[in-house]
Amino acid sequence: MLVACSGGADSVALASALAFEAPRLGVRAGGVTVDHGLQAGSDARAAEVVLRLRELGLDPVESVAVRVGREGGPEAAARDARYAALDAAAERHGAAAVLLGHTRDDQAETVLLGLARGSGIRSLSGMAAVSGAGGRYRRPFLQLDRQTARKACMVQSLSVWDDPHNADPAYTRSRLRHEGLPALEKALGKGVVEALARTAQLSRDDADALDAWAGRAAAGVRDADGRLECAGLHALPPAVRRRVLRRAAIEAGAPAGSLFARHIEEVDRLITGWRGQGAINLPGKVVARRQGGRLVIRQG
Ligand SMILES: Nc1ncnc2c1ncn2[C@@H]1O[C@H](COP(=O)(O)OP(=O)(O)OP(=O)(O)O)[C@@H](O)[C@H]1O
After folding, report:
1. What's the CATH code of the domain at 259?
2. Burial letters for 94-116: b for 16+ Cβ neighbours within 10 Å, e otherwise?
3. 297 lines ligand 1 (CB under 6 A)
4. How many angstroms separate the alpha carbon of residue 100 from the centre of ligand 1?
5. What are the tens digits of pLDDT across the range 1-52?
6. Is 8 annotated as a binding residue?
7. Residue 101, annotated ligand binder?
8. Looking at the predicted complex, does its ipTM rise above 0.95?
9. Model pLDDT, residue 277
């Protein structure tokens, strides 16, 4: 197992927990830190994290420098580069799992961000405890509050580094962390973070059930040429129909990350609205076109 450590309290606490548990679990435990190169001195900090991980007894430990592109904004680009580097590190070391330090507070923030975007329940289900190809990514602290992780570091005198981005009001997530959630806790009580994390779990179960339903429904409305029958689609509950449409768009080559609810709603109106004919352009050069009683979604 490899722990992905930024040097922040959450992932340092996780690294220490992994080092402690590894002998009992009978696993070899290592660590990796990613240097995004976005701030002056980030390489020195990465070297410091490597030292700390070694002191905890983790082996192998490495720091990986990545080049962050600009696509989708700096936060998204850094995340993409980080996951690519973590994937490569897992391959290099033959690691079955990469542990991430996301906590219940991160989960609550993710749910609120989804709510504010007007997303469906898949977004409200936040981060999964297990994700990635072959279930590589694990988030063992997803039920743990951030304060406990911080305390664990203090009790063990583990030095941690606070990413200045996490406190920078220019970032939506940071405003939510430092202003939004405390205000919500003041108004609604301390249990709000835990409640939001529970919402995430309930939404995940519901979203999984709807996805399974949509998988079966898709087979029922598709003709031999892969076109979708509008009458069959129309008869489906909207939540299932939108999932069938989304799945068809992704199969036609639309990148899942750029396919938003508003795109699917537009395609949905080709079936349910007055626009009997017409075409909707989707990301990835995919076009959804109504042809009489059929809907064709393919590369345009
Ligand atoms: N530069 C990095 N190198 C390695 N892993 C990272 C890095 N940045 C983030 N991670 C991993 O992703 C998790 C979530 O990171 P994120 O920045 O979203 O949250 P955070 O609350 O700042 O976490 P932390 O307190 O551990 O830095 C971290 O706990 C860690 O496991």
Report:
1. 3.30.465.60
2. ebebbbbbbbbbbbbbbbbbbee
3. no
4. 7
5. 999 999 999 999 999 999 999 999 999 999 999 999 888 888 999 999 999 9
6. yes
7. no
8. no
9. 66
